[in-house]
């Protein structure tokens, strides 16, 4: 392990240890934290239901020196629900480069700063990663308070395999780039988790079906809220539904089942039999292309084999 790795690891452990002592929590049997230690605290917040804020997250937000949030208007509603008056500062895509040095300076002065996103776990599809990297590079402490995540909530509700998955965030908005991105994951034996805009949902589902095949999938929206819905079906069924019904309301997560297991490759005798049958109907080049599509074998190798088979057939006819 290199020096930076040791430093990063010890910083996280030190922050957890300093902020993790248990003390009596007034009016509750739950453990609480002392005033948060100096450093950056990554705090997960509710994705819909305000009751999902953990006691530890609530006390940390109340006692840090500053909260860096994606949108102060959104976070103010959460803080107001719990009577928290901690000062806030905006940290988002448009001001991140300018704000990072300012936050680092405050951390160097021994302050504690909480990082939150509008909903869910920070760093998941937001600019928090660059701040965490900068804090670690400065030799400062980073800790995390786990909690709600829309992607994980949708995954466990989808009914699809959850032992292996890829969180892919938002797909590109333009169709060509979106299809190219999906093609990269075509053979991945893992469930795929996407965030998507409601107005692009139907077209994105159609592109998923085109590039990934008509796999089982689930569309989850308004998670943990009053009108939570998880619609399950094949990609084509879901695409047809949202094309006919229109864009749904609320935040949307799409979960797609893993790529099916590849069929066992045919042996040489089977390949020759397939090529011979194809050669009775189409040209050598087309026969190679047809069997390549069926088996996934390289077209060039099949073309050479088809040439040899055709030559052998013609030789037999001459004799």
SSE layout and pairing:
Elements: H1 3-19, E1 23-25, E2 28-32, E3 39-43, H2 55-63, E4 66-69, H3 72-81, E5 88-90, H4 96-108, E6 112-116, H5 128-137, E7 142-145, H6 150-158, E8 165-170, H7 175-184, E9 191-196, H8 201-212, E10 216-221, E11 229-234, H9 235-245, E12 252-256, H10 268-279, H11 284-295, H12 299-318
Parallel strand pairs: 3-6, 3-7, 4-5, 4-6, 8-9
Antiparallel strand pairs: 1-2, 9-12, 10-11, 10-12
Which CATH class of the largest domain is shown?
Answer: Alpha Beta
Question: Strand portion, in percent?
Answer: 15-25%
Distance between the termini: 71 Å
CATH architecture of the largest domain: 3-Layer(aba) Sandwich
What does this structure look like?
With 319 residues, the chain is of the alpha/beta class. The protein folds into three domains: 3-148, Tetrapyrrole methylase, N-terminal domain (Cobalt-precorrin-4 Transmethylase, domain 1); 151-256, Methyltransferase, Cobalt-precorrin-4 Transmethylase, Domain 2, CATH 3.30.950; 268-318. Helix content is 45%, strand content 18%. Strands 5-4-6-3-7 form a five-stranded parallel sheet, sandwiched between helices. A five-stranded mixed sheet has the order 8-9-12-10-11.
């Amino acid at each position: 392990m290199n020096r930076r790795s040791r430093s990063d690891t010890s910083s996280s452990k030190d922050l957890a240890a300093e902020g993790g002592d248990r003390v009596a929590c007034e009016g509750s049997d739950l453990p609480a934290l002392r005033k948060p230690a100096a450093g950056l605290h990554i705090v997960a917040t509710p994705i819909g239901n305000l009751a999902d804020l953990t006691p530890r997250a609530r006390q940390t937000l109340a006692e840090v020196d500053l909260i860096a949030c994606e949108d102060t208007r959104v976070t103010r509603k959460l803080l107001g629900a719990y009577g928290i008056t901690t000062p806030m500062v905006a940290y988002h895509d448009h001001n991140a480069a300018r704000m990072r040095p300012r936050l680092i300076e405050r951390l160097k002065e021994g302050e504690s700063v909480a990082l939150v996103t509008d909903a869910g776990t920070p760093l998941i599809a937001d600019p928090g990663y660059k701040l965490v990297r900068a804090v670690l590079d400065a030799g400062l402490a980073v800790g995390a308070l786990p909690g709600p995540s829309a992607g994980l909530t949708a995954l466990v509700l989808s009914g699809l395999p959850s032992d292996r998955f890829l969180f892919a965030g938002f797909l590109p908005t333009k169709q060509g780039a979106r299809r190219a991105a999906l093609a990269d994951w075509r053979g991945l034996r893992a469930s795929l988790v996407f965030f998507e805009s409601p107005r692009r949902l139907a077209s994105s589902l159609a592109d998923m079906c085109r590039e990934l095949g008509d796999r089982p999938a689930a569309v989850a929206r308004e998670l943990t809220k009053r009108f939570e819905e998880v619609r399950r079906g094949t990609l084509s069924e879901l695409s047809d539904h949202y094309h006919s019904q229109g864009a749904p309301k609320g935040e949307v997560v799409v979960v797609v089942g893993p790529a099916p297991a590849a069929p066992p490759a045919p042996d040489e005798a089977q390949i020759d039999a397939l090529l011979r049958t194809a050669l009775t109907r189409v040209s050598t080049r087309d026969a190679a292309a047809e069997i390549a599509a069926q088996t996934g074998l390289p077209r060039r190798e099949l073309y050479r084999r088809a040439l040899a088979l055709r030559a052998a057939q013609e030789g037999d006819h001459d004799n």
